[in-house]
Amino acid sequence: MNSRTRLMAFAALLPVAAPLAAQDALPFSDGRWELSPQGVRAETVDGRETLAFESGVATRRDVKLQDGTIEMDVQVTRRRSFVYVTFRMQDDKEYEDLYLRPHKSGLPDSLQYAPVHQGQSGWQLYHGPGSTAAVAFEPGAWTRLRLVLQGQRAAVFLGSAERPVMVARLQRESKPGYVALRAFVPPDTPGSGPVARFANVTVRPNAVPFDFSSIAVEAPVVPLGVVRRWEVSGPIPPSDKPPDALPSVEALGPLRTVATHASGLLELHRHVTLPPGSRAGACVARVRVRAAKAGRVAFDLGYSDRATVFLNGEPLYHGDQGYRFDAPRREGLIGYDQARVWLPLAAGENELAVLVSDSFGGWGLMGRFADQAGLELDPR
After folding, report:
1. Do 56 and 70 meet the contact criterion of CB atoms below 8 Å apart?
2. Residue 165 CB: number of other CB atoms within 10 A?
3. pLDDT at 15
4. How far apart are CA 51 and CA 95, in angstroms?
5. Contacts of 119 (CB under 8 A, 6+ apart)
6. Dihedral over alpha carbons 190, 193, 195, 200 (to 10 degrees)
7. CA 50 to chain CA centroid, nearest Å
8. CA-to-CA distance for 307 and 299, rounded, in angstroms?
9. Which runs of consecutive H residues, i.e. helices, occur in the chain?
10. Burial class (CB in 10 A: 0-12, 13-18, 19+), 351
């Protein structure tokens, strides 16, 4: 079964959308679109008023959309590129993203949702059902893209399909915000010219032509032995070298207890504010483990992008799972399968600490004990 057949089979299981409401057009000629100085230009193509993108952004700050519908025509190429619809923008660094990877047409992550905090996308932290989907793009063809928002969910429609290709679980708090269109071409990508064109953009606040209640919401799967709360430091300077000791108490500053998602994911960009102008972040997260008896226990660790594990102040493990396009290819997606660390616990109280740093793709941590028998966890 090819990717297009799988997509059609999946869509057949989802509920049908209701008829569209009256449209509120956002023409590119009305003077209200804010275009980046380079990478975006207005032009007429196929009789349509369009914006053509290489690497650039077009922002519509007068829109205030929380629940409702965003709709547009989009045209892409096969060049390696990323084509974005950005919504519920609180400012230029806090928003939700839906984006296309046209060069990965038909692959499981050709369509992606990701939250953005402090200007940093969390795409490595959110993948699989509710965050990524396999869709096929026809280069050079105009495709209708529709995004329906309600609360913490977003239904994504492509073409004339009446059923969504993905229903995303939105991770940021639901608040009204403005919208933007964007595209990005990585440096040294072969080829030239626009990688995306947008036309016929409409935004309809409070128009929700899709019955989200007809989709069964699965209860979150809570892994056994997962660390549900961590004590987290403030930001510390990141280093390219594996640390052999924890930072001083003074360097860490006051620690505060934060809860994870149900999956055990701790999204650090949500809780640790980076210094102004900084893209790279580092901090320490710790939890106290009380063991009924001494012995080695297995601890599964997920992290993005680099982590060093300390037990009672002694380093036990260091890993680097940062994204790398080539030599070797590495996605850097977070998961419990990234590392298993055998912790030599002493009887009584132990301090498990992880220094985790990130510079791209999402800053996160997750941990679970393979067998929590005889263990008590307390971040305080």
Report:
1. no
2. 22
3. 41
4. 22
5. 92, 93, 279
6. 180
7. 28
8. 14
9. 3-12, 249-252
10. middle
Q: Alpha helix (H) ranges present in 234-324?
A: 249-252
User: E strand or H helix at 6, and its extent?
Assistant: helix 3-12
Strand partners, 307: 319, 356
Q: Convert the pLDDT of each residue in 38-93 to its tens digit.
A: 999 999 998 899 999 999 999 999 999 999 999 999 999 999 999 999 999 999 99
SS3 269: helix
Which domains, and CATH codes, for the chain?
A: 3-214 (2.60.120.560), 229-378 (2.60.120.260)
Tokens of 50: 């369009």
Question: What are the phi and psi torsion angles at 213 (to 5°)?
Answer: -65, -15
Closest CA to 19 of 174, 165, 199, 148: 148
User: Could you count the other beta carbons within 10 Å of the beta carbon of residue 221?
Assistant: 8
Count Cβ neighbours within 10 Å for each residue of 285-302 and write b for 16 or more, e otherwise: bbbebebeeeeebebbbb
When mean pLDDT is compared across 17-21, 183-187, 308-312, 344-348, the lowest value belongs to 17-21
* Residue given tokens 């419990």 in the structure block: 336
Contact assessment for residue 285 and residue 351, using Cβ atoms and an 8 Å cutoff: no
CA 79 – CA 376 distance, rounded (Å): 51
Q: Model-level pTM? A: 0.90
- Tokens 């941590």 -> residue: 365
- Alpha-carbon gap, residue 379 to 259, rounded angstroms: 10
